[in-house]
Amino acid sequence: MPERLLDSMPKEIRVALGQFRDPSDDMLTYIAQLGAQDFQMNNAGFPGDKQWEYEDLLAARKKAEKHGLRLMSLENVPNSFFDKVMLGEPGRDEQIAHMQNTIRNMGRAGIPILGIHWMPSSVWSTNPPAKRRGGSVARRFNIAEHDPDELTFGRVITDEEMWDNFKYYMERILPVAEEFGVTFAVHPDDPPVPQLGGVARIFRNFEGFKRMTDTFDSPNLGLNFCIGCWSEMGGRENVLRGIRYFAPRGKLIYIHFRDVEGTADNFTECYIDEGNLENKLEIMLALKENGFNSFLIDDHVPHMIDDTRWGHRGRAYAIGYLSALIDVVNKMPALSKVNGVPA
Ligand SMILES: [Mn+2]
């Protein structure tokens, strides 16, 4: 087995589809029609309330292969698999043992990446969602509309407590990932604010991720670089800082390429041609020039008229846009020579 299953995958910037829970033949056909060869599943609906089994994981990979696709990443196991681990509660060692099994099973089934987060109370959104152009519907968050005194778990859980719990988990789980060739990709806290419901959110800024990679310098641990969240944390400068630091070190495992309008406290998700990052080509070029050579997905997209539940209309727009950006950064150097203009 290679050091990482990821190492036997293509080494180039490319689009992939993602955020599917239970990929139907229709979805897999759709991915192939868009010209992508890779996809990711989010909160995959495999059987099992404690761990995922080898046979189910293998069947998912085989189904993908029948459509000519690679199942690159499973993002987010159910929180019930590791909630006690995140909270440092009794029973965490049993959950860790099951997670070790899930990782062994993933490795044996040939699925290279496990996307993880560190949010015991998950992603927070504000209702109702926002109306975007033409009446399309998008997720939003505004901290002012949430109860500042809420304690989701009845107590305050500090930054250092969340770090201690993360360390405890990684010390036990990273060696298994290394042995079985699986790579972890950590998503930012969404929204990336200091705390919600009394629970500290430690992956909310550059420093949090640097602390993670400083503490655990393993090729099997890196970032699921969600540009939407990094844009919320500090806009263009923050996104470029993250790319320039983590990409050359091989720590960007894959990308969620999207944007928002606003900041972590108050933002609205948007179309790929809108948002804080006015020049998306600059971002794609930064990825290329800093050596990023993996896949990127569209992540969240506005819901368009007559869209499916899994947003194939909204996704088609984003994927087409991202494919064109990749084309430009790959072909521009040659193009500059066409008319005798020096590169
Ligand atoms: Mn994301």
Polypeptide structure, described:
- The strands form 4 sheets. Strands 1-2-3-4-8-11-12-15 form an 8-stranded parallel barrel, surrounded by 4 helices.
- The chain starts with 13 loop residues before the first strand and ends in an 8-residue tail after the last helix.
- A hairpin with a 2-residue loop joins strand 13 (260-263) and strand 14.
- It has helices at residues 25-33, 54-66, 83-87, 92-109, 159-180, 206-215, 227-246, 280-289, 312-335; strands spanning 14-20, 38-42, 70-75, 113-116, 130-131, 137-138, 140-142, 183-186, 195-196, 199-200, 221-226, 252-256, 260-263, 266-269, 295-297.
- It has one domain (5-335): Divalent-metal-dependent TIM barrel enzymes (TIM Barrel, Alpha-Beta Barrel).
- The chain is built from 9 helices and 15 strands.
- The protein binds manganese (II) ion (MN).
Which sequence of strands runs across the widest sheet?
A: 1-2-3-4-8-11-12-15
Beta-strand fraction estimate: 15-25%
Low-confidence stretches: none
The CATH homologous superfamily name equals Divalent-metal-dependent TIM barrel enzymes
Strand segment count: 15
- Alpha-carbon distance between the two ends: 42 Å
CATH architecture descriptor text: Alpha-Beta Barrel
List ligands, each type once. manganese (II) ion
Q: In CATH's first tier, which class applies?
A: Alpha Beta
Q: Report the C-alpha radius of gyration, rounded.
A: 20 Å
The tally of structural domains comes to 1
CATH fold field value: TIM Barrel
Fraction of helical residues: 25-40%
**Alpha-beta classification:** alpha/beta
- Mean residue pLDDT: 96
Morphology call? globular
- Please outline the major beta sheet: 8 strands, parallel, barrel
